[in-house]
Design goal:
The structure is a single chain. By secondary structure, this protein is an all-alpha fold. Helix content is 85%, strand content 0%. The radius of gyration is 23 Å and the shape is globular.
Length: 487
Amino acid sequence: MTKFKALLKKYNDIPVAAKATLWFMLCTIIQKGISLITTPIFTRIMTITQYGQFTIYNSWLQIFTILTTLRLNWAVFNKGMSKYKDDRDGYTSTMQSLTFIITAVWFVIYLSFHRAIDSLVELPMIIMVAIFAELFFTPAIDFWTLRKRYEYYYISVVVRTLLMSFLNVGIGVAAVLLSEEKGYARILSCVFVNLLFGIPLFITNRSKGKTWFKPEYARFALAFNLPLLLHYFSQYILDQFDKIMVQKMISIEAAGLYGVAYSAGLMMKIVTQSINNAIVPWQYEKLEKRQHKELDDVCFKIYILVAGCALVFCAFAPELMRILADRKYYEAVNVIPPVALGMVFSFMYTTFANVEFFYDQNKFTMYISMAGAALNIILNYFGIKIFGYVAAAYTTLFCYIVFALCHYIYMTKSTIKALNIENVYNGKRLLALSLITVLLGIILIFFYDKIVVRYCFIVVLLLVAFINRKKIQSILEIKASNKHSTD
Protein backbone atom coordinates (compact mmCIF):
# COMPACT_ATOMS: atom_id res chain seq x y z
CA MET A 1 0.00 0.00 0.00
CA THR A 2 2.88 2.35 0.86
CA LYS A 3 4.52 1.64 -2.51
CA PHE A 4 1.23 2.36 -4.26
CA LYS A 5 0.90 5.72 -2.49
CA ALA A 6 4.49 6.57 -3.40
CA LEU A 7 3.84 5.74 -7.06
CA LEU A 8 0.62 7.77 -6.99
CA LYS A 9 2.44 10.76 -5.52
CA LYS A 10 5.16 10.44 -8.12
CA TYR A 11 2.51 10.35 -10.85
CA ASN A 12 0.70 13.38 -9.41
CA ASP A 13 3.97 15.34 -9.43
CA ILE A 14 4.43 14.81 -13.18
CA PRO A 15 3.62 17.97 -15.23
CA VAL A 16 0.28 17.85 -17.06
CA ALA A 17 1.99 17.89 -20.47
CA ALA A 18 3.99 14.80 -19.54
CA LYS A 19 0.86 13.07 -18.20
CA ALA A 20 -0.94 13.84 -21.45
CA THR A 21 1.97 12.45 -23.50
CA LEU A 22 2.00 9.27 -21.39
CA TRP A 23 -1.76 8.69 -21.67
CA PHE A 24 -1.91 9.46 -25.40
CA MET A 25 0.91 6.97 -26.02
CA LEU A 26 -0.77 4.28 -23.91
CA CYS A 27 -4.08 4.99 -25.62
CA THR A 28 -2.52 4.60 -29.07
CA ILE A 29 -0.88 1.31 -28.09
CA ILE A 30 -4.16 -0.04 -26.63
CA GLN A 31 -6.13 1.13 -29.68
CA LYS A 32 -3.75 -0.58 -32.10
CA GLY A 33 -3.62 -3.59 -29.82
CA ILE A 34 -7.41 -3.95 -29.91
CA SER A 35 -7.31 -3.79 -33.70
CA LEU A 36 -4.63 -6.48 -33.91
CA ILE A 37 -6.18 -8.75 -31.28
CA THR A 38 -9.56 -8.69 -33.04
CA THR A 39 -8.14 -9.33 -36.51
CA PRO A 40 -8.19 -13.13 -35.90
CA ILE A 41 -11.92 -12.91 -35.12
CA PHE A 42 -12.80 -11.18 -38.40
CA THR A 43 -10.48 -13.31 -40.56
CA ARG A 44 -12.18 -16.44 -39.22
CA ILE A 45 -15.81 -15.34 -39.63
CA MET A 46 -15.29 -13.68 -43.03
CA THR A 47 -14.16 -15.15 -46.32
CA ILE A 48 -10.96 -13.86 -47.98
CA THR A 49 -13.11 -11.94 -50.51
CA GLN A 50 -15.17 -10.32 -47.73
CA TYR A 51 -12.07 -9.35 -45.78
CA GLY A 52 -10.63 -8.02 -49.03
CA GLN A 53 -13.67 -5.75 -49.40
CA PHE A 54 -13.00 -4.30 -45.96
CA THR A 55 -9.28 -3.89 -46.74
CA ILE A 56 -10.06 -2.02 -49.97
CA TYR A 57 -12.65 0.15 -48.21
CA ASN A 58 -9.96 1.32 -45.78
CA SER A 59 -7.53 2.05 -48.61
CA TRP A 60 -10.01 4.04 -50.72
CA LEU A 61 -11.25 5.85 -47.60
CA GLN A 62 -7.75 7.28 -47.15
CA ILE A 63 -7.81 8.74 -50.67
CA PHE A 64 -11.27 10.25 -50.22
CA THR A 65 -10.24 11.66 -46.82
CA ILE A 66 -7.29 13.53 -48.35
CA LEU A 67 -9.53 14.93 -51.11
CA THR A 68 -12.38 15.99 -48.81
CA THR A 69 -10.37 17.33 -45.85
CA LEU A 70 -7.20 18.55 -47.62
CA ARG A 71 -5.62 17.32 -44.37
CA LEU A 72 -6.89 20.42 -42.54
CA ASN A 73 -7.18 18.12 -39.51
CA TRP A 74 -3.41 17.66 -39.34
CA ALA A 75 -0.51 20.04 -38.63
CA VAL A 76 -2.28 23.18 -39.88
CA PHE A 77 -4.94 22.76 -37.18
CA ASN A 78 -2.29 22.92 -34.44
CA LYS A 79 -0.80 25.95 -36.20
CA GLY A 80 -4.22 27.58 -36.05
CA MET A 81 -4.58 26.77 -32.35
CA SER A 82 -1.44 28.86 -31.77
CA LYS A 83 -2.06 31.60 -34.35
CA TYR A 84 -5.68 32.18 -33.35
CA LYS A 85 -5.43 31.27 -29.68
CA ASP A 86 -7.96 33.96 -28.74
CA ASP A 87 -10.61 32.41 -30.98
CA ARG A 88 -9.93 28.68 -31.05
CA ASP A 89 -13.65 27.90 -31.10
CA GLY A 90 -14.12 30.05 -34.20
CA TYR A 91 -11.13 28.48 -35.94
CA THR A 92 -12.39 24.96 -35.14
CA SER A 93 -15.85 25.78 -36.45
CA THR A 94 -14.41 27.30 -39.64
CA MET A 95 -12.20 24.26 -40.34
CA GLN A 96 -15.19 22.00 -39.82
CA SER A 97 -17.34 24.08 -42.16
CA LEU A 98 -14.60 24.18 -44.78
CA THR A 99 -14.20 20.39 -44.83
CA PHE A 100 -18.00 20.02 -44.96
CA ILE A 101 -18.20 22.29 -48.03
CA ILE A 102 -15.34 20.51 -49.80
CA THR A 103 -16.95 17.13 -49.05
CA ALA A 104 -20.28 18.39 -50.44
CA VAL A 105 -18.56 19.40 -53.70
CA TRP A 106 -16.94 15.97 -54.03
CA PHE A 107 -20.27 14.28 -53.22
CA VAL A 108 -21.96 16.13 -56.09
CA ILE A 109 -19.11 15.02 -58.37
CA TYR A 110 -19.56 11.44 -57.17
CA LEU A 111 -23.33 11.48 -57.80
CA SER A 112 -22.69 12.80 -61.31
CA PHE A 113 -20.24 10.01 -62.17
CA HIS A 114 -21.17 7.33 -59.65
CA ARG A 115 -21.31 4.42 -62.10
CA ALA A 116 -17.73 4.98 -63.24
CA ILE A 117 -16.50 5.57 -59.67
CA ASP A 118 -18.36 2.53 -58.28
CA SER A 119 -16.76 0.41 -60.98
CA LEU A 120 -13.31 1.82 -60.21
CA VAL A 121 -13.44 1.19 -56.45
CA GLU A 122 -15.49 -2.04 -56.80
CA LEU A 123 -17.93 -1.00 -54.09
CA PRO A 124 -21.73 -0.58 -54.53
CA MET A 125 -23.43 2.82 -54.44
CA ILE A 126 -24.99 2.24 -50.99
CA ILE A 127 -21.53 1.71 -49.50
CA MET A 128 -20.14 4.78 -51.29
CA VAL A 129 -22.99 6.96 -49.97
CA ALA A 130 -22.31 5.63 -46.46
CA ILE A 131 -18.62 6.49 -46.88
CA PHE A 132 -19.53 10.06 -47.83
CA ALA A 133 -21.80 10.30 -44.76
CA GLU A 134 -18.74 9.29 -42.76
CA LEU A 135 -16.61 11.90 -44.56
CA PHE A 136 -19.09 14.66 -43.76
CA PHE A 137 -18.96 14.14 -40.00
CA THR A 138 -15.78 12.30 -38.93
CA PRO A 139 -13.53 15.39 -39.37
CA ALA A 140 -15.42 16.77 -36.36
CA ILE A 141 -13.95 13.93 -34.27
CA ASP A 142 -10.44 14.82 -35.44
CA PHE A 143 -10.86 18.55 -34.75
CA TRP A 144 -12.28 17.88 -31.29
CA THR A 145 -9.51 15.39 -30.50
CA LEU A 146 -6.70 17.65 -31.72
CA ARG A 147 -8.11 20.57 -29.73
CA LYS A 148 -8.23 18.47 -26.57
CA ARG A 149 -4.72 17.13 -27.18
CA TYR A 150 -3.39 20.65 -27.76
CA GLU A 151 -4.88 21.84 -24.46
CA TYR A 152 -3.84 18.64 -22.58
CA TYR A 153 -7.39 17.51 -21.79
CA TYR A 154 -6.33 13.91 -22.10
CA ILE A 155 -8.97 12.05 -20.04
CA SER A 156 -11.89 12.79 -22.38
CA VAL A 157 -9.77 11.92 -25.45
CA VAL A 158 -8.65 8.59 -23.96
CA VAL A 159 -12.21 7.66 -22.92
CA ARG A 160 -13.65 8.59 -26.33
CA THR A 161 -10.92 6.75 -28.25
CA LEU A 162 -11.17 3.52 -26.27
CA LEU A 163 -14.98 3.60 -26.27
CA MET A 164 -14.99 3.98 -30.05
CA SER A 165 -12.50 1.12 -30.40
CA PHE A 166 -14.54 -1.28 -28.28
CA LEU A 167 -17.83 -0.33 -29.95
CA ASN A 168 -16.25 -0.69 -33.38
CA VAL A 169 -15.24 -4.25 -32.56
CA GLY A 170 -18.43 -5.23 -30.69
CA ILE A 171 -20.87 -3.84 -33.25
CA GLY A 172 -18.63 -5.06 -36.08
CA VAL A 173 -18.62 -8.67 -34.87
CA ALA A 174 -22.40 -8.62 -34.32
CA ALA A 175 -23.04 -7.11 -37.76
CA VAL A 176 -20.78 -9.63 -39.52
CA LEU A 177 -22.35 -12.62 -37.74
CA LEU A 178 -25.91 -11.48 -38.51
CA SER A 179 -25.34 -10.58 -42.15
CA GLU A 180 -24.94 -12.54 -45.37
CA GLU A 181 -22.85 -9.76 -46.95
CA LYS A 182 -20.23 -9.83 -44.21
CA GLY A 183 -17.70 -7.55 -45.94
CA TYR A 184 -20.23 -4.77 -46.42
CA ALA A 185 -21.61 -5.33 -42.90
CA ARG A 186 -18.13 -4.75 -41.46
CA ILE A 187 -17.78 -1.53 -43.48
CA LEU A 188 -21.21 -0.21 -42.42
CA SER A 189 -20.51 -1.02 -38.75
CA CYS A 190 -17.40 1.23 -38.91
CA VAL A 191 -19.41 3.98 -40.59
CA PHE A 192 -22.14 3.69 -37.93
CA VAL A 193 -19.69 4.03 -35.01
CA ASN A 194 -17.99 7.05 -36.61
CA LEU A 195 -21.35 8.75 -37.19
CA LEU A 196 -22.45 7.88 -33.62
CA PHE A 197 -19.59 10.05 -32.31
CA GLY A 198 -19.07 12.37 -35.28
CA ILE A 199 -22.55 13.93 -35.47
CA PRO A 200 -22.72 15.00 -31.76
CA LEU A 201 -19.16 16.40 -31.93
CA PHE A 202 -20.02 18.21 -35.18
CA ILE A 203 -22.90 19.92 -33.35
CA THR A 204 -20.69 20.62 -30.29
CA ASN A 205 -17.90 22.22 -32.34
CA ARG A 206 -20.42 24.27 -34.29
CA SER A 207 -22.31 25.57 -31.22
CA LYS A 208 -19.09 26.56 -29.40
CA GLY A 209 -17.73 28.36 -32.44
CA LYS A 210 -20.71 30.79 -32.59
CA THR A 211 -19.72 31.42 -36.20
CA TRP A 212 -20.06 29.17 -39.23
CA PHE A 213 -17.21 30.46 -41.35
CA LYS A 214 -14.43 33.08 -41.12
CA PRO A 215 -12.69 33.74 -44.49
CA GLU A 216 -9.43 34.78 -42.79
CA TYR A 217 -9.06 31.40 -41.08
CA ALA A 218 -9.94 29.52 -44.25
CA ARG A 219 -7.41 31.47 -46.35
CA PHE A 220 -4.66 30.80 -43.82
CA ALA A 221 -5.38 27.07 -43.63
CA LEU A 222 -5.63 26.60 -47.39
CA ALA A 223 -2.46 28.60 -48.08
CA PHE A 224 -0.60 26.46 -45.56
CA ASN A 225 -1.92 23.05 -46.61
CA LEU A 226 -2.45 23.13 -50.38
CA PRO A 227 1.30 23.04 -51.17
CA LEU A 228 1.59 19.95 -48.94
CA LEU A 229 -1.13 17.92 -50.68
CA LEU A 230 1.31 16.21 -53.04
CA HIS A 231 3.40 15.22 -50.02
CA TYR A 232 0.31 13.76 -48.30
CA PHE A 233 -0.68 11.83 -51.42
CA SER A 234 2.87 10.56 -51.78
CA GLN A 235 2.85 9.27 -48.21
CA TYR A 236 -0.49 7.59 -48.85
CA ILE A 237 0.82 5.90 -52.01
CA LEU A 238 3.78 4.48 -50.13
CA ASP A 239 1.65 3.25 -47.21
CA GLN A 240 -1.62 2.12 -48.81
CA PHE A 241 -1.75 2.24 -52.60
CA ASP A 242 -0.16 -1.19 -53.03
CA LYS A 243 -3.39 -2.79 -51.72
CA ILE A 244 -5.42 -1.05 -54.42
CA MET A 245 -2.93 -2.07 -57.09
CA VAL A 246 -3.14 -5.69 -55.89
CA GLN A 247 -6.95 -5.44 -56.08
CA LYS A 248 -6.97 -3.97 -59.60
CA MET A 249 -4.16 -6.13 -61.06
CA ILE A 250 -4.98 -9.48 -59.42
CA SER A 251 -8.20 -9.72 -57.38
CA ILE A 252 -9.98 -8.56 -54.26
CA GLU A 253 -9.13 -11.95 -52.70
CA ALA A 254 -5.43 -11.25 -53.20
CA ALA A 255 -5.94 -7.84 -51.59
CA GLY A 256 -7.48 -9.60 -48.58
CA LEU A 257 -4.52 -11.98 -48.26
CA TYR A 258 -2.05 -9.14 -48.66
CA GLY A 259 -3.96 -6.91 -46.20
CA VAL A 260 -3.84 -9.43 -43.33
CA ALA A 261 -0.11 -10.11 -43.73
CA TYR A 262 0.61 -6.39 -44.18
CA SER A 263 -1.22 -5.67 -40.88
CA ALA A 264 1.01 -8.22 -39.13
CA GLY A 265 4.15 -6.55 -40.49
CA LEU A 266 2.85 -3.14 -39.47
CA MET A 267 2.90 -4.18 -35.82
CA MET A 268 6.50 -2.95 -36.03
CA LYS A 269 5.12 0.55 -36.57
CA ILE A 270 3.88 0.61 -32.97
CA VAL A 271 7.50 0.14 -31.87
CA THR A 272 8.99 2.73 -34.24
CA GLN A 273 6.33 5.41 -33.66
CA SER A 274 6.60 5.05 -29.90
CA ILE A 275 10.40 5.40 -29.97
CA ASN A 276 10.37 8.30 -32.43
CA ASN A 277 7.79 10.27 -30.43
CA ALA A 278 9.91 9.80 -27.32
CA ILE A 279 13.33 10.75 -28.75
CA VAL A 280 12.38 13.85 -30.81
CA PRO A 281 12.73 16.32 -27.87
CA TRP A 282 16.02 14.68 -26.85
CA GLN A 283 17.24 14.75 -30.45
CA TYR A 284 16.46 18.48 -30.74
CA GLU A 285 18.19 19.14 -27.42
CA LYS A 286 21.40 17.42 -28.60
CA LEU A 287 21.30 19.31 -31.92
CA GLU A 288 20.81 22.60 -30.10
CA LYS A 289 23.84 21.89 -27.88
CA ARG A 290 25.79 20.55 -30.88
CA GLN A 291 26.45 17.29 -29.05
CA HIS A 292 26.58 15.41 -32.34
CA LYS A 293 28.85 12.57 -31.24
CA GLU A 294 26.52 11.59 -28.41
CA LEU A 295 23.51 11.95 -30.73
CA ASP A 296 25.14 9.68 -33.32
CA ASP A 297 26.19 7.02 -30.78
CA VAL A 298 22.82 6.80 -29.03
CA CYS A 299 20.80 6.87 -32.27
CA PHE A 300 22.93 4.05 -33.66
CA LYS A 301 22.10 1.96 -30.59
CA ILE A 302 18.42 2.76 -31.16
CA TYR A 303 18.70 1.68 -34.82
CA ILE A 304 20.19 -1.63 -33.64
CA LEU A 305 17.29 -2.06 -31.18
CA VAL A 306 14.70 -1.33 -33.89
CA ALA A 307 16.47 -3.67 -36.33
CA GLY A 308 16.51 -6.41 -33.69
CA CYS A 309 12.76 -6.01 -33.12
CA ALA A 310 12.16 -6.24 -36.89
CA LEU A 311 14.19 -9.44 -37.10
CA VAL A 312 12.14 -10.95 -34.27
CA PHE A 313 8.99 -10.13 -36.28
CA CYS A 314 10.57 -11.78 -39.33
CA ALA A 315 11.47 -14.90 -37.33
CA PHE A 316 7.99 -15.15 -35.77
CA ALA A 317 6.11 -14.46 -39.04
CA PRO A 318 4.59 -17.99 -39.40
CA GLU A 319 3.34 -17.89 -35.80
CA LEU A 320 1.93 -14.37 -36.29
CA MET A 321 -0.05 -15.53 -39.32
CA ARG A 322 -1.44 -18.50 -37.39
CA ILE A 323 -2.57 -16.15 -34.62
CA LEU A 324 -4.05 -13.50 -36.93
CA ALA A 325 -5.79 -15.79 -39.41
CA ASP A 326 -6.64 -19.38 -40.26
CA ARG A 327 -4.90 -21.63 -42.77
CA LYS A 328 -6.39 -20.04 -45.89
CA TYR A 329 -4.25 -16.93 -45.29
CA TYR A 330 -0.91 -18.69 -44.64
CA GLU A 331 0.33 -18.33 -48.20
CA ALA A 332 0.78 -14.59 -47.56
CA VAL A 333 3.33 -15.13 -44.77
CA ASN A 334 6.21 -13.95 -46.99
CA VAL A 335 4.69 -10.45 -47.02
CA ILE A 336 5.53 -9.90 -43.32
CA PRO A 337 9.38 -9.72 -43.46
CA PRO A 338 9.71 -6.93 -46.09
CA VAL A 339 6.98 -4.89 -44.37
CA ALA A 340 8.65 -5.25 -40.95
CA LEU A 341 12.08 -4.43 -42.43
CA GLY A 342 10.56 -1.45 -44.22
CA MET A 343 9.59 0.02 -40.85
CA VAL A 344 13.29 0.07 -39.87
CA PHE A 345 14.12 2.33 -42.82
CA SER A 346 10.94 4.35 -42.26
CA PHE A 347 12.19 5.01 -38.72
CA MET A 348 15.66 5.90 -40.01
CA TYR A 349 14.42 8.44 -42.53
CA THR A 350 12.16 10.00 -39.87
CA THR A 351 15.16 10.61 -37.59
CA PHE A 352 17.06 12.11 -40.54
CA ALA A 353 14.07 14.32 -41.36
CA ASN A 354 13.98 15.48 -37.73
CA VAL A 355 17.45 16.99 -38.28
CA GLU A 356 16.22 18.70 -41.46
CA PHE A 357 13.21 20.14 -39.63
CA PHE A 358 15.39 21.36 -36.76
CA TYR A 359 17.51 23.42 -39.15
CA ASP A 360 14.50 24.47 -41.29
CA GLN A 361 16.01 22.61 -44.23
CA ASN A 362 12.87 20.71 -45.25
CA LYS A 363 11.95 22.34 -48.56
CA PHE A 364 12.89 19.22 -50.57
CA THR A 365 10.86 16.84 -48.38
CA MET A 366 7.91 17.06 -50.77
CA TYR A 367 10.08 16.25 -53.81
CA ILE A 368 11.63 13.24 -52.07
CA SER A 369 8.13 12.00 -51.17
CA MET A 370 6.85 12.49 -54.72
CA ALA A 371 9.85 10.68 -56.24
CA GLY A 372 9.42 7.78 -53.80
CA ALA A 373 5.69 7.53 -54.57
CA ALA A 374 6.27 7.52 -58.34
CA LEU A 375 8.96 4.85 -57.95
CA ASN A 376 6.60 2.77 -55.80
CA ILE A 377 3.84 2.81 -58.43
CA ILE A 378 6.22 1.88 -61.27
CA LEU A 379 7.88 -0.95 -59.32
CA ASN A 380 4.51 -2.23 -58.07
CA TYR A 381 3.14 -2.36 -61.61
CA PHE A 382 5.96 -4.50 -62.97
CA GLY A 383 6.57 -6.43 -59.73
CA ILE A 384 2.93 -7.48 -59.20
CA LYS A 385 2.57 -8.31 -62.89
CA ILE A 386 5.60 -10.63 -62.89
CA PHE A 387 5.81 -12.01 -59.32
CA GLY A 388 2.32 -11.53 -57.81
CA TYR A 389 1.09 -9.64 -54.76
CA VAL A 390 4.10 -10.48 -52.54
CA ALA A 391 6.22 -8.25 -54.81
CA ALA A 392 4.28 -5.21 -53.54
CA ALA A 393 5.79 -5.68 -50.07
CA TYR A 394 9.31 -5.83 -51.47
CA THR A 395 8.83 -2.73 -53.62
CA THR A 396 7.60 -0.88 -50.52
CA LEU A 397 10.72 -2.01 -48.63
CA PHE A 398 12.93 -0.84 -51.51
CA CYS A 399 11.17 2.55 -51.61
CA TYR A 400 11.64 3.03 -47.86
CA ILE A 401 15.35 2.29 -48.35
CA VAL A 402 15.45 4.92 -51.12
CA PHE A 403 13.59 7.36 -48.84
CA ALA A 404 16.13 6.82 -46.07
CA LEU A 405 19.06 7.19 -48.47
CA CYS A 406 17.68 10.38 -50.06
CA HIS A 407 16.94 11.94 -46.67
CA TYR A 408 20.39 10.96 -45.44
CA ILE A 409 22.07 12.60 -48.45
CA TYR A 410 19.90 15.72 -48.20
CA MET A 411 20.32 15.89 -44.40
CA THR A 412 24.09 15.62 -44.85
CA LYS A 413 24.20 18.49 -47.31
CA SER A 414 21.73 20.66 -45.39
CA THR A 415 23.56 20.09 -42.08
CA ILE A 416 26.92 20.97 -43.59
CA LYS A 417 25.34 24.06 -45.15
CA ALA A 418 23.70 25.10 -41.88
CA LEU A 419 26.63 24.43 -39.55
CA ASN A 420 29.68 24.09 -41.77
CA ILE A 421 30.57 20.84 -39.96
CA GLU A 422 30.83 17.15 -40.77
CA ASN A 423 27.73 15.01 -40.91
CA VAL A 424 25.76 14.32 -37.74
CA TYR A 425 25.54 10.55 -38.38
CA ASN A 426 28.22 7.99 -39.28
CA GLY A 427 27.06 6.76 -42.68
CA LYS A 428 29.41 3.77 -42.96
CA ARG A 429 28.13 1.94 -39.92
CA LEU A 430 24.52 2.79 -40.85
CA LEU A 431 25.13 1.17 -44.24
CA ALA A 432 26.66 -1.92 -42.60
CA LEU A 433 23.73 -2.25 -40.17
CA SER A 434 21.22 -1.83 -43.02
CA LEU A 435 22.83 -4.52 -45.16
CA ILE A 436 23.09 -7.00 -42.27
CA THR A 437 19.46 -6.38 -41.21
CA VAL A 438 18.00 -6.87 -44.70
CA LEU A 439 20.20 -9.91 -45.37
CA LEU A 440 19.21 -11.65 -42.11
CA GLY A 441 15.53 -10.80 -42.62
CA ILE A 442 15.51 -12.33 -46.10
CA ILE A 443 17.51 -15.40 -45.02
CA LEU A 444 14.96 -16.14 -42.27
CA ILE A 445 12.26 -16.65 -44.92
CA PHE A 446 14.05 -19.79 -46.12
CA PHE A 447 13.76 -21.29 -42.62
CA TYR A 448 10.00 -20.81 -42.11
CA ASP A 449 9.52 -24.58 -42.23
CA LYS A 450 12.39 -25.14 -39.76
CA ILE A 451 11.11 -23.99 -36.40
CA VAL A 452 14.24 -25.07 -34.46
CA VAL A 453 16.53 -22.85 -36.56
CA ARG A 454 14.22 -19.84 -36.19
CA TYR A 455 13.83 -20.28 -32.44
CA CYS A 456 17.60 -20.65 -32.01
CA PHE A 457 18.00 -17.36 -33.88
CA ILE A 458 15.48 -15.67 -31.56
CA VAL A 459 17.28 -17.08 -28.48
CA VAL A 460 20.57 -15.64 -29.78
CA LEU A 461 18.92 -12.23 -30.28
CA LEU A 462 17.47 -12.32 -26.77
CA LEU A 463 20.84 -13.36 -25.35
CA VAL A 464 22.52 -10.40 -27.10
CA ALA A 465 19.79 -8.12 -25.72
CA PHE A 466 20.37 -9.50 -22.21
CA ILE A 467 24.13 -8.94 -22.45
CA ASN A 468 23.50 -5.36 -23.60
CA ARG A 469 20.63 -4.74 -21.19
CA LYS A 470 22.33 -1.71 -19.62
CA LYS A 471 22.64 -0.02 -23.02
CA ILE A 472 18.96 -0.78 -23.73
CA GLN A 473 18.04 0.59 -20.32
CA SER A 474 19.89 3.83 -21.13
CA ILE A 475 17.73 4.20 -24.25
CA LEU A 476 14.57 3.69 -22.18
CA GLU A 477 15.84 6.30 -19.72
CA ILE A 478 15.95 8.81 -22.59
CA LYS A 479 12.24 8.15 -23.14
CA ALA A 480 11.49 8.48 -19.43
CA SER A 481 13.44 11.72 -19.07
CA ASN A 482 11.58 13.23 -22.03
CA LYS A 483 8.24 12.42 -20.46
CA HIS A 484 9.27 14.39 -17.40
CA SER A 485 10.63 17.33 -19.37
CA THR A 486 7.84 17.75 -21.92
CA ASP A 487 6.36 20.70 -20.07
